[in-house]
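Sequence, please.
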């Protein structure tokens, strides 16, 4: 209860805005376009792996934790589902406590991290102007940065495939973006809010990462 009270006081001076427009979660991965790169280039094949990194396998499993060394992030992962508002689907992670703001959320209506995966895994997290939130520095990531995801089956390592993408919070912006081609295998998409000078959040940041390796084994903690 203390954490919730503290957040309630601080939010008067901080921005915690998060709504990401999503495509219909009922779309079948088989109906979506597959690509050979994680940046959306259409070629008809799954997201490419480097030849020297191919061959490992790990069963799909709900993600438990995420580490991104470049921005000092190491936190737990929970799950969420999308919500229909009028004619559009939205994603809005919990925000009532400090713990929720510092957590990352997997969109469980779509693929779980695996090697190989059946489609793209989507992770959402809050970005805040004056609070410690999980994805505050997501927009600072660079091509090649490591993203490590822990599941019940082991650890998967991804590398950021391109600089962060800025997408308007509209159906024509993020809602129609190639990041929502659900069937792209071996891809991880990280999404958070972006802010302008007046503190409003008219857009989302999206970071696309590509699976590089998987280390299966029992994970403790």
């Amino acid at each position: 209860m203390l954490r919730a009270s503290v957040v309630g006081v601080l939010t008067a001076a901080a921005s915690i805005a998060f709504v990401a427009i999503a495509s219909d979660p009922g779309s079948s991965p088989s109906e979506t376009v597959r690509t050979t790169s994680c940046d959306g280039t259409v070629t008809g094949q799954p997201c490419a792996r480097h030849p020297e990194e191919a061959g490992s396998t790990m069963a799909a499993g709900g993600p438990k934790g995420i580490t991104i060394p470049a921005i000092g992030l190491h936190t737990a992962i929970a799950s969420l589902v999308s919500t229909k508002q009028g004619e559009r689907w939205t994603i809005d992670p919990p925000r009532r406590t400090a713990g929720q703001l510092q957590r990352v959320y997997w969109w469980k209506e779509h693929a779980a991290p695996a090697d190989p995966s059946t489609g793209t895994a989507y992770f959402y997290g809050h970005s805040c102007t004056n609070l410690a939130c999980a994805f505050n520095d997501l927009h600072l990531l660079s091509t090649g940065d490591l993203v490590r995801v822990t599941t019940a089956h082991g650890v998967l390592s991804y590398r950021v495939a391109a600089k962060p993408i800025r997408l308007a919070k509209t159906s024509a912006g993020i809602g129609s973006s190639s990041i929502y081609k659900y069937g792209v295998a071996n891809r991880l998409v990280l999404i958070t809010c972006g802010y302008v000078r007046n503190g409003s959040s008219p857009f989302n940041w999206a970071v696309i990462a590509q699976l590089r390796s998987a280390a299966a084994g029992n994970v403790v903690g």
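The helical segments are 2-10, 98-101.
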